[in-house]
Amino acid sequence: MASPAGAAGCGDDLRAAARIAIEQGGASLAFAPRPAPIAIGRHFSVDVVVCAVDGATRQPLVRVDADMPAHRHGMNYRATIRALGGDRYAATG
C-alpha cells in the first residue's frame, strides 16, 4: 500500500476541484473524475488512489459503479479498472 495517510492527505495530487476523499475500514481512498465536471450522457474516467490507514497492509479491492438518480438505476456499462502501480488505479467505461 502507499504510505499511510488519512483521507485529508490521500491523493493530494489529483485534480483538487474534483477530488473526493473518504476513509473507511482501514483505508483511505481518493478519486477524481476525468473530465470534471462529468457531462450528462458522456462517458468519463475516474482516477483512484488508495492509501493505508493505521498500518493496514491488506491489498485493496477496487470496484466502480455509478448511479443515475433520475433514471433510478446504475450504469449501463461495466467499468474497466486498470492498476497503474503505487496503489493508483484508472477506471474507464
What does this structure look like?
The protein is an all-beta fold. Helices cover 0% and strands 39% of the residues. The strands form two sheets. It has a five-stranded antiparallel β-sheet with strand order 1-2-3-7-6, with no helix packed on it. It has a two-stranded antiparallel sheet with strand order 4-5. Strand 6 and strand 7 form a beta hairpin. The protein is globular. The two termini are 25 Å apart. 20% of the residues are buried.
Poorly predicted ranges: 1-5
What separation lies between the terminal Cα atoms?
Answer: 25 Å
Based on helices, strands and strand pairing, what is the structural class? mainly beta
- Taken as a percent bin, the fraction of beta residues is 35-45%
